[in-house]
Design brief:
The complex is a heterodimer.
Chain A (H helix, E strand, L loop, with lengths): L5 H16 L7 E6 L1 H9 L10 H15 L7 E4 L4 E6 L4 H20 L10 H19 L1 H13 L38 H4 L2 H18 L10 H8 L4 H22 L1 H20 L5 H12 L8 H18 L3 H6 L3 H5 L8 H11 L2 H8 L2 H6 L2 E7 L4 E6 L2 H12 L7 E8 L4 E6 L8 H15 L3 E7 L2 E7 L4 E5 L16
Parallel strand pairs in A: 1-3, 7-8
Antiparallel strand pairs in A: 2-3, 4-5, 6-7, 8-9, 9-10
Chain B lengths: L1 H26 L2 H4 L5 E5 L12 H4 L1 E4 L7 E2 L19 E5 H8 L17 E11 L9 H14 L19 E10 L3 E8 L6 H21 L4 E7 L3 E4 L1 H6 L8 H15 L6 E8 L6 H18 L3 E6 L7 H10 L5 E6 L5 H9 L4
Parallel strand pairs in B: 7-8, 7-10, 10-11, 11-12
Antiparallel strand pairs in B: 1-4, 5-6, 8-9
Helix pairs in contact in B: 4-6, 6-11, 8-9
Classes of the chains: A alpha+beta, B alpha/beta.
Chain lengths: 506, 364
Amino acid sequence: MANLTPALEVERQRILKIAKEAGLDFFETIFELISYDQINQFAAYGGFPVRYPHWKFGMEYEHLSKSYEYGLSKIYEMVINTDPCYAYLMEGNSMMDQKLVMAHVYGHCDFFKNNVWFGKTNRKMMDAMANHATRIRRYMDRYGYDVVESFIDRCLSLENLIDRYSVYYEPNRSKQSEVAPAEKDFLLRYDREYMRDYINPPSFVAEQKKKMHEMASKRMKFPIEPERDILRFLMAYAPLDDWQQDILSIIRDEAYYYSPQGMTKTMNEGWASYWHTTLMTQKIMNDSEVIDYADHHSGTMAMNPQSYNPYKVGIELFRDIEERWNKGQFGRDWENCDDVNERKHWDKKTNIGHEKIFEVRKIYNDVTFMDEFLTEDFCVKNRFFVYKFNKRTNQFEVDTRDFRAIKAKLLFQMTNFGQPIIRIENGNFENRGELLLSHLWEGIDMQPDFMTETMKNLYAVWTRPVNLLTVLDNERILCRFDGKEWTQNKLGGEQNSEPASGEEKK
Amino acid sequence: MSIKEDHNRFRDIIKGRIKEDLRKYVSQGEMIGKREKDFVKIPLPQIDIPNFRYGPKQQGGVGQGEGKPGDAMGEPQPGQGQAGDQPGDHLLEVELSIDELAEILGEKLALPRIQPKGMKQIETTKNRYSGLAPVGPQGLRHFRSSYKKALQRSISSKTYNPKNPIIVPIKEDFRYRTVKTVKKPMTKAVVIYMMDVSGSMGDEQKEIVRMESFWINAWLKKHYKGLETRFIIHDAAAKEVDEDTFFKTSESGGTLISSAYKLAQQMIEKDYPVHEWNIYPFHFSDGDNWSGEDTRLCIRLLREFFNPNCNVFCYGQVESKYGSGQFLKDLQKEFGSDEQIILSQIENKDKILDSIRDFLGKGK
């Protein structure tokens, strides 16, 4: 399998040893040396050698190849979260690059294995992906390429409608008992008739009756609780053929597989970068490679005003954490200290930075990581700012350097991958089998044209009219697509970030 | 490799789609204005699967670096989406020259019924360094064949020693690259663009005609070397103009289509002997001719002169509020099934590409 040149193999063993000594803990990692075209292909396939047939991989491949050929960007490394881990090195890269990549890869592998958010991923995804490909090819043979591909297009349009956190807890989807609870079930037991009003005073009876009605009306709801795993809901209740249901499940499985990588992008890249630079500069590199290494490393860490570089932010945060915990810059004393000078020279010689960063890489994801460790000092040091679009000048402008605004924006962008949160409120809306979705509006509207198209795809799967509660231009609206017509009704009232629910409509 | 399969699939979709996109391009007025710069920016083809997402302009984001509140910055680049661990963002725009764009446009287009005329008279020549000669300048010395010659000689003269394989070339061994002149027959073609600039043609109609002829012209020039182009504008009278004027003038007045046809006829008779030239007249109008009599004259000209002498005659009619559009109907009645008269109706800007296909699409 591994086809490294003897020289690379020697380096691989050396770096493996160094990484283990540094405390990194990973599954066996297999490196393969492949050409740029192959690496583009694998990257287009999300890191895997085989995927189901679909044009989107072809598109990704074209973009990667073109940007490589135009010299715009190239992929240095790629590693996938499986056990064993597979990582790819590109032929023709210099020895220094290959060493850097190997060190970086071991950082990722350690993260994959130890970060809890990866705990539920399928480590045999290599097989699963190949299996998915076989199944979809079989459906294509049986039902026709175009038919199956169009259905996949639909599913991909709904791909992000999953509940990313549902993997980590058991959502309560237990069905309520079929028999409606009787009135007596809500009242307390009394053995003597004369005790009745003492044990169940009228006010209590009234309260319990209200509770009972609530439960009864809830029982009528479907789903009982609003459902965020819309793909699961569709698999269970939409009128799909077996093959369609299977394809939907494939798309859903893959979406859940990739989900933790999105949830930990900054941490994962930060961690891998932290380790490649630590190991390279301390152990791996020889003197002749310093200049090339510095050039390459700084290229990866480069920031530009218009974009957020997860490598840079991640590595700086890890370094910041390490330093703070080494110097004891945490806890109540630190928080309460207002003396600039004292803070500057604060060093309690706690020296637990190393343990702390290993703990952080284990239990945090990007949202909690940012929430906990992004400090005002850090934002100032890294010159963060918030930008926004100015309609008047028709351009993006720097908005503010206020710490709270920066943090809020970053957290917002990371929550649910910066995608709107949509959930199913009612699968039998107005008792007509229609679907009612609601968008948890948090101050930002959805892009209307995409919203319309997505609802059409949803309609095609659900086969009954689809309704969506959202906010556009500061007005609460109910959009509806019934297969032919698109309608949009204003609901009136102030918008708020509470989800609007079906009952509120008239 | 199965990615090729997916890639071909994508290309196939895009071919339909890039043409969709091109519609927008073709329809954008500034296209011609950018001609001097010779560069247009077109994005890499991309199919965006719709999903629920936030509008990018509303959202804003976090950046790093210099700048005071209120300072402008460039377009934000989308953050990296999923898994991949590639440093750097993909830049999704490439600049294409008009030539390249014309090529994309023309994947399935060709001048219809082009014939190898005039090949005896005119040939193009091209120099190729494909031959070898025993004499020549040192700069063109061909090492491999010189070595081979020397090796042959030394083996045959038994001076070659395998244990000490030194070859000493002498003057006779050297070989030099030489120029061979390749002669290539050339097909001669001339395109004559005629445009109705009368009062009934509104600005929008003229715009459509200009865009369409601009694209046809760009494409033909790219694909047919040495193609000649002539431009005629007409209202009640016709005159020949240069390319720039053709794309810029606005006139007004009545419409006598025959005036343009007569001028084109003179032009052909004078400059383009039909046995040597492939001739392609394109005429664009709103179809509102002055009188039925003039239309009859036009039809006679078409039948008697253009039809036998031109490869095809292309007539494109733009829809206009004022025009009756009668001319097209008359031509249809007259030449409905004639392959040498191609008629096309251009209802709006979006139909320009279809119309170009009507004219230049293969299989016509």
